[in-house]
Design a protein that fits this description.
Number of helices of chain A: 13
Shape of chain B: globular
Largest sheet of chain B: 8 strands, mixed
Radius of gyration of chain B: 18 Å
Number of domains of chain B: 1
Number of domains of chain A: 1
CATH topology of chain A: Rossmann fold
CATH architecture of chain A: 3-Layer(aba) Sandwich
CATH architecture of chain B: 3-Layer(aba) Sandwich
Distance between the termini of chain B: 30 Å
Mean pLDDT of chain B: 90
Strand order of the largest sheet of chain B: 3-4-2-5-1-6-7-8
Low-confidence stretches of chain A: 3-21, 274-289
Low-confidence stretches of chain B: 248-260
Strand order of the largest sheet of chain A: 3-4-2-5-1-6-7-8
Structural class of chain B: alpha/beta
Strand content of chain B: 15-25%
CATH class of chain A: Alpha Beta
Shape of chain A: globular
Radius of gyration of chain A: 19 Å
Order of helices and strands of chain A: HEHEHHHEEHEHEHEHHEHHH
Structural class of chain A: alpha/beta
Chains: A alpha/beta, B alpha/beta, C alpha/beta
CATH class of chain B: Alpha Beta
Oligomer: heterotrimer
Helix content of chain A: 25-40%
Order of helices and strands of chain B: EHEHHHEEHEHEHEHHEHHH
Mean pLDDT of chain A: 85
Strand content of chain A: 5-15%
CATH topology of chain B: Rossmann fold
Helix content of chain B: 25-40%
Number of strands of chain A: 8
Distance between the termini of chain A: 41 Å
Chain lengths: 289, 263, 301
Amino acid sequence: MHVLRQTQDENQPQDAAAITGARNLGRAIVITSGKGGVGKTTTAANLGTALAQRGARVALVDADVGLRNLDIVLGLESRVKHHLLDVLDETVTLDDALVSDKHSDTLFLLAAAQTREKDEVDTDKMRALVQQLRERFDYVLIDCPAGIEMGFKNAIAGAEEAIVVCTPEVSAVRDVDRVVGLLGNRFKPQLVINRLRPQLVKKGKMLSVDDVNAILRLPLLGVIADEPEIIVTTNKGEPIALRKDGQTANAYHAIAARIAGEDVAAPTVELKKESFLDKLGAFFGGRRS
Amino acid sequence: MSARKIVITSGKGGVGKTTTTANLGAALAKRGKRVILVDADIGLRNLDLVLGLEKRIVFDLVEVAEGRCQLRQALIKDKRFENLSVLPAAQTRDKDAVTEAQFAAIVDQAAEIADYVLIDCPAGIEGGFRNAIAGANEGIIVTTPEVSAIRDADRVVGKLAEKNVPMRLVVNRLRPEMVRSGDMLSVDDVCEILAIELVGIVPDDEEVIDTTNRGEPIVLDETARLSAIYDKIARRLEGEVVAFTNFENQSFFGRLFGALKAG
Amino acid sequence: MTLLRGRGLGLEVMFADRDFDVALTELEARLTERPDFYRGTPATAAFGSALPTLDQLLALRTVLSSAGVELAAVSGGPDLEAVAHEAGLTYSAPTVAHEELARRRALKPKRELKLSDAARSLVADFAGARADIAERRKRGEASVRRHAASPAPAPVPAPVPAPVAVVAAAPAPERPPETLYHVGTLRGGQALHHAGNIVVVGDVNPGTELVATGDIVVFGRLRGVAHAGAQGDASARVYALDLDATQLRIATSIAADEGKRKGAARPEVAFVRDGRIALVPFENSEQLEASVDPKRGGKQH
């Protein structure tokens, strides 16, 4: 049984803005995992795209200074003129640095610097920057680097919520568990399980969603199956969420809807009917020779 | 003569550093070499998991660094591979628990009692990475044939080159059918971008997930395709010239669409 | 009602309907348990219908700033404005939302809790342990006194308070606190080290470490590493509803179960017999009392 939402205090009115008496601040969500290679950047790009497709104003921030990748995944690497550190150092304004997405006109990217280091980021300035972005955007999604060092600490500065991404592998679950422990209750973390292969789960060769959440115990935001298509779209710089349908695109749209507060049916991943090629691949590809 | 101290790194996370360290270490041990594997990922340790040694951890790297135990007490002997030992990382500490100098000293200590010390590097290029390379005099860069991984690997190659550390390349999780359709870079493309000596090409194999989860490195199975491949990497490291075998004989797609190399 | 709440831009400290001094002490204890956790966060203090004195406001500000938290504003009734002004603080009138919240809380029946003597003593222990940890942190010492036999302590995560108003803020006891009581799941990388017994209500995930000089009780799944009798007390025990630890240690004995567990989980207790760690189902543990001589505890094996 998947828990979709947890509310801390039933008396808490839904609209945070009414309490603070402030303007409608956007939501700042960090996308993190601890383990590398589970799909944080892909998730950030696709979720941002899906939210923008629903009309929201979205800012994507690549906090992986020195190992930037969010721009590639969005196909924007040639358009990046300035980056996060330029803005933090105040050599350019935020407007100058924000790159408009090719496909969605309410989606913007603040790229990381490639030739700098993570410890050059001042945590307080990062927090202030995220605040600034929240004043102008409905969603600020922060792509967090792998690990739990300074890069991670800076990426969560200024965020109010967290999405943790995990693959159904033991090492990933352990790392994600560590990160969830470090995040604490403050970020209300929710879980996206990525790269699930239902056939393998059925054969008992991969952890199931329940296996993963038996340890993580987080509200489940979505489950994304492993598809070669995703690598293709990543390499091409065209997030799969741009598509109108298809299992993965739909999964991201459903996640976006849940984030936006809609009551969407619990996430499932369907076992695709094995095609002739699937069976062949299983026979030859997985065979020991 | 002191051991070869090789750091296994990548920049990008999730490309297979830990899997490579474990399997390459085991392959070298099978060839009779004394191998010590060091997990440098303090706080996010996985090497012990991948080898199924988690339950045997009594002392860890940080405790050795803090002088609370000897290196020999902390080393876990693998029961399946003679000559293979693991120095686990600490889980409840952070990367700043050990300095570069302390890490390098531990690696040197290990080098006195082994032929190979393989250092499993954490993802990224921060403190954990700096510690891991501090101990090494050689590097193995692991990358997948994807643009983001290669970009990150390139950054790491730059950092190691600054320190004049000789490097070799392992291209991991190759999917020949995707190379064919142009959706994945070819090994030649990768080598051209990174410009370092190629020492291994490892195809994607879904068995790896399961064996990792069970803590049984794939080289335990002599008949596994990947077993032979890691053995070849071990041989190349030893200086043997070993050809990269054709994929042709091993895959249906290989036969249909022409030769693709692996090994 | 919780004392500290994350709200919008920062923290909200709730003083409404509480005794100021008691709440301030609790706040101080919480902040010193996690010295850097809140650093850099701004805070507002909500007083509701209560009216603090100038001294109280200044004391509050001091407590917050020593944890790196800036007291940005105070909210409450109109009389508060003058006091806030005197203290150099921003005053904000409770918003409609605040009033609505207060109204809803007034409607909720106040929880009446009858605590048994045993439970009362547990709460006092808890307050004592926290006060003790806070004291030591202030002095710059580790949270748990280092003992030669046990490993160095790691940072103790903030225990989640039980949903009970503090019954009695007991003064810090002279002797070390008996039991550390933690409600909530412990996650990989977290460690609880305690001179005394440890009770966890929740799961202990793999990658977690529990070290106690006394017994360890987990009302949930124990999957990390548990070390009871850490100073050499071999009569110490480990209890869990689902004992699936990566590794068990009692005094100087260590054990791990390499095989896969058969059958469903049931409550078990681990203890030392003849120098080795053994497990029995909890229902059978009366046999345990008969066969193990408690006086054997403390012998090194």
